[in-house]
Amino acid sequence: MAIEGEELAKACVKAAEEIQAENIRVSDMRGISNLTDYMIVCSGSSMPHLRAIIRDVAGIVEKETGAKPANSEGKVDSRWVVLDYIDVMVHVMDEEMREFYGLEELWADAKELEWSPVNSSKGNGGVRKSNFIH
Q1: For a surface tag, which of 53, 88, 103, 129 has the fewest beta carbons within 10 Å of its beta carbon?
Q2: How far apart are CA 32 and CA 131, in angstroms?
Q3: pLDDT digits (tens, 9 = 90+) for 73-112
Q4: Domains of the chain and CATH, by start
């Protein structure tokens, strides 16, 4: 069964959080852009951290949902990689590139979704889940 939209975005946020990506922000792009439904932007603190975020987001999301990026743009050496899941785009950037390109400001019309990590051992076997606050 294919996963899409909000559930896929939640899986991406959860994976980014688990590898300690920094400053994770989620934008609801529906009605703003026809490129994607959700845009996730996060940062890494070093080249190894950026590599780990990219590897783990792709790996954890595939393991837990079966979804693979339809495309991946950029290289870690460029300090900006996009994992494109069609309904969700995950931008992994170092902080300098993030400040320079200002994606959050560029897409300021999009609603930013707050999310809260949920850590519960009741009813889900201790699985961590991220929930968006609407």
Answers
A1: 129
A2: 22
A3: 998 999 999 999 999 999 999 999 999 999 999 999 999 9
A4: 5-110 (3.30.460.10)
Tell me the three state secondary structure of residue 85: coil
Find how far residue 87's CA is from the centre of its chain.
Answer: 11
Helix axes 47-65, 5-18, angle to 10 degrees: 140
Confidence of residue 127 (pLDDT cuts 50, 70, 90): very low
pTM of the model: 0.86
Tokens 């069964």 label which residue? Answer: 1
pLDDT tens digits, one per residue of 4-31: 789 999 999 999 999 999 999 999 999 9
Cα separation, 123 vs 134, in Å, equals: 23
Strand order in the sheet with 38-44: 71-73, 80-84, 88-94, 38-44, 22-28, 111-119, 128-133
